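Ligand-bound model needed. 2'-deoxyguanosine-5'-monophosphate.
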Amino acid sequence: MSDTCLFCRIVRKEIPAKIVLENEHVVAFRDIDPKAPTHVLVVPREHVESLDTATDATMLGNLVLAAAEIARAEGIVGGGYRTVMNCGADAGQSVYHVHLHLLGGRRLAWPPG
Ligand code: DGP
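Prediction:
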C-alpha cells in the first residue's frame, strides 16, 4: 500500500468511487472519465506500479477474471467488450497502480489511438 497512490486511497475508501465489485483480491470501480457506457477500472488491493513491475501471475489473472465477471453483470457480453492495460508513458498510463480497463456498451474502434 502507498500512502499517496490514488488507487490505493480508493481501495482504502479514503476517496469515493462508484465501486461495482470488490473481493479479497481486487476492487473495481467506474472510471471518472468514461470512454464507453461501461468503463470500469479493476485494480489489485496491493500496490504494484505497472505491468512492467508486476511479477504475480495470480494477481494479474484475478484482474482479468474480475473484468469478465463485471462484463457479465453489466450485460455487455453479447455485444462484446475490451480489456486494456496501459503500461508507461507512450501507452498513456497516468496512474501508476496497475489497473485493467473494462470497456463496452458501444462499438469500439480498432486499433486504439
Ligand atoms: P490510465 O490512463 O491507463 O493510467 O488510466 C487511469 C484512469 O483512471 C483514467 O481513465 C481516469 C481514471 N481516474 C483518474 N482519477 C480517478 C479518480 O479519482 N477516480 C476514478 N474513478 N477514476 C479516476
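Residues 57 and 69 are 18 Å apart (CA to CA).
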